[in-house]
TrEMBL record:
Keywords: DNA-binding, Transcription, Transcription regulation. SUPFAM superfamilies: Winged helix' DNA-binding domain. Residues 5-138 form the HTH marR-type domain. This is DNA-binding MarR family transcriptional regulator. PROSITE patterns: HTH_MARR_2. It comes from Treponema rectale.
Amino acid sequence: MKYLTNQVLSLISRIHTQSAEFTNSRLSLKGSFVSSHGFILFILSDGKPQTMGALAEKINRTKSTTTSLIKKLIQEGLVKTEPDPEDSRIKLISLTEKGMEYRNFTGEVSKELLNACWKDFSDIEKTELMRLLIKMSDNLS
């Protein structure tokens, strides 16, 4: 399908949908997870506990949606919550051992997706596409 320049957002939306379908189909092999679950695990894999608000901002979802996603991960034993030592009203979310193991699986899925996306792209093309997409994103910020 050929896209015109005034259809750029439609193309970006299509790529987003395709990447989510790709990711979700692979994540479903290990349970009823979606790409946002994998992204949360990725964020938490650096070992730094996160607040619900910080996670919501990083995955670009509302706090209520993020809370639902986190509840699923808690039920599956992949993440845990603990009170913030500085403010017990705040809960910090971190990976469990099982979550770290699952994160390894989601990392492989991410690599597979990126390899599919970048197939037949030169390093120069990758750099240029990233530069242009960042510019477009900055225009909308």
